[in-house]
Amino acid sequence: MKIVHAIARLNVGGAALSVLELAAGQKALGHDVLVVAGTIPAGEASMEQLASELGVPYRNVPELQRELSPRRDAAATRVIQHLLRERRPQVLHTHTAKAGATGRLAALLAGGARPGVVVHTYHGHVLSGYFAPRRERAYRLVERALALATDALIAVSDEVRDDLVRFGVAPREKFEVIPYGFDLDRRIDSTSETRVRRRSAAGIDDAFVLGWAGRMTEIKRPGDLVRVLAELPAAVLLLAGDGELRSEVEHLARTLGVSDRVRLLGYIDDLGSWYGAFDVFLLTSANEGTPVVAIEALAAGVPVVATDAGGTSTVVDDGETGLLAPIGDVPALAAHVERLRTDDPLRRRLGAEGARRVRERFSTTRMVDDVERLYRRILGA
């Protein structure tokens, strides 16, 4: 089977990682797979090298960019349209909003070269909480129109699907919920030796360490990470990532008097070796599709304290693998962290159970098999 995956960009994050893991798994099954991705904006770390490591064929389309641009978007659509006519794939599988729009429009314009299967995966959505109401309404209308040109829609969690149905993107029966899958044993290094090495590199000895990883953007509410730290008497906060709110995070840390307990690591290539250095992973987002960083933290045996946002509860089982609190409830988040700090048996129990569950729930084999069944069902219809 010839398969083309299109994604806006292979930046560090769950969407790009899952696409590359899926493509690698499909290639291992004998399929002819190509991943098409656009330009990574300045200030974002790349995951393009992983395509080579996994042996996944990859083609960069510079015209495909995150920012809205009628000229570039039209050019990206033409490039993908030409690629479809050139390769004649049976499957076009698009991911993320921009690639979903340009890719599905290209399939419509490809005439006889339209693939027999056109699928789009929602790794999350930007239909609420990201833009002004008027712009959100416009994007919802666009997604509804695109859904009509799509054979099936995939959501990475029940919560993402339910949001999209509520926004009128498509009826519930057009969605398949297929959770992420990752080779967690390959990605995560949580040995005691690595823990000591990473903590030493961060200038930490016996401190209780809160960890976080991601892009410092408004939807992630990184200021709440610092506010939680300020309510804790004895903890250090390690932030792996960067973004437009970094300077605000630094300013807030100074204002609250906790600068000496905050470590800003920036983007790091080997994040999987850092999770074991954390005692608790803290997630303060206002929205999530499926938080891959929480999956990876749990895989390292680190319990997660998080806001109950979007698909977070798909990953974190409250009271069993971590503790959840309402969005923006800093005192509740701080109380959860303090509880785990002072109750070592509980912290270890949640971490161990999390490591077991995520390996069952988020395996690459399960994800690849689920997607394969969907493709074949549509082709056989």
Structure description:
This protein has two domains: about 1-180 and about 365-380, 3-Layer(aba) Sandwich (Rossmann fold); about 185-360, 3-Layer(aba) Sandwich (Rossmann fold). The protein has 15 helices and 13 strands. The protein has helices at about 15-30, 50-55, 70-85, 95-110, 135-150, 160-165, 185, 190-200, 220-230, 245-255, 290-300, 310-315, 330-340, 345-360, 365-380, and strands spanning about 1-5, 30-35, 60, 90-95, 115-120, 150-155, 175, 210-215, 235-240, 260-265, 280-285, 305, 320-325. Strands 3-2-1-4-5-6-7 form a seven-stranded parallel beta sheet, sandwiched between helices. A six-stranded parallel beta sheet has the order 10-9-8-11-12-13, sandwiched between helices. Helix 3 (about 70-85) crosses helix 4 and helix 9 crosses helix 13 (about 330-340). The longest helix is centred in the N-terminal third of the chain and has 18 residues, at about 70-85.
CATH topology of the largest domain: Rossmann fold
Query: Low-confidence parts lasting 5 or more residues at pLDDT below 50?
Result: none
Kindly state the number of beta strands. Answer: 13
Backbone CA Rg: 21 Å
What separation lies between the terminal Cα atoms? 16 Å
Strands in their spatial order, largest beta sheet? 3-2-1-4-5-6-7
| SSE arrangement, N to C | EHEHEHEHEHEHEHHEHEHEEHEHEHHH
Mean pLDDT: 93
Level-2 CATH architecture of the largest domain: 3-Layer(aba) Sandwich
The percent of residues in helical segments reads 40-55%
